[in-house]
């Protein structure tokens, strides 16, 4: 297990104000915070580079990350106030968002001392932080590995035409890319999921995955001709908050464990890998995501939680 690999997550940490049936409560949230906590819960050295204030909400973020074993990059608490995402959860457990946000990166932020960088969501497209995220991605790609989840938020990212070029540029520097089918439908409304996956793979990643909610996920790899379909974990739905983030955390953790992420050598191995090499990582991502959607909120499973599932389902190992 590659516990010595250092992971940097770059992106938003915020407060989710979630409304269900007219009742609103605030929770720790943000796509990159969720991924960082998920990777840390799976026993990897994880640091979050983000942007929040020293207000009461920011203090709650800091405390939650400390409790979850996530380091915070110096300068992250430099914002004038902490971003709030207002989420409405419908009767089927699906969340829609509006944001009161500030986004930037700490002065002097660098990815050079880390082995794997993960980023995504509006962090890569909202300025002034977006250009700085791209710089960190390019820096990380020189010596380590990079993963990306566009995690589209139309209310703050503008139109597809405004962000498509930036998203594709980041994809071109990545080793692992994951998007939901809803993300791809928004970005490319007239193109099929499979077509977009092929075009993204041609930009440079070793692996492109599309999650499809209750229909599981599709995966394509540079070293394989055909697409793989991954079935979902059959669970009772709590809500979908954090589902994609948990999938990403489980996938990154397992690829690090398999030495298929976290170094230039690992990048080469991933590019040459076959399905048999990565199916255990895809299964772990399916398990972590399934455990998250079985709870309310962005629950981050640990190795013991994953083991309890796989012990009863050896086909997931």
UniProtKB/TrEMBL annotation:
<keyword id="KW-0547">Nucleotide-binding</keyword>
<protein>
    <submittedName>
        <fullName>Carbohydrate kinase</fullName>
    </submittedName>
</protein>
<comment type="similarity">
    <text>Belongs to the carbohydrate kinase PfkB family.</text>
</comment>
<dbReference type="GO" id="GO:0005524">
    <property type="term" value="F:ATP binding"/>
</dbReference>
<dbReference type="InterPro" id="IPR011611">
    <property type="entry name" value="PfkB_dom"/>
</dbReference>
<dbReference type="Pfam" id="PF00294">
    <property type="entry name" value="PfkB"/>
</dbReference>
<feature type="domain" description="Carbohydrate kinase PfkB">
    <location>
        <begin position="5"/>
        <end position="265"/>
    </location>
</feature>
<dbReference type="GO" id="GO:0016301">
    <property type="term" value="F:kinase activity"/>
</dbReference>
<dbReference type="InterPro" id="IPR002173">
    <property type="entry name" value="Carboh/pur_kinase_PfkB_CS"/>
</dbReference>
<keyword id="KW-0418">Kinase</keyword>
<dbReference type="InterPro" id="IPR050306">
    <property type="entry name" value="PfkB_Carbo_kinase"/>
</dbReference>
<keyword id="KW-0808">Transferase</keyword>
<dbReference type="InterPro" id="IPR029056">
    <property type="entry name" value="Ribokinase-like"/>
</dbReference>
<keyword id="KW-0067">ATP-binding</keyword>
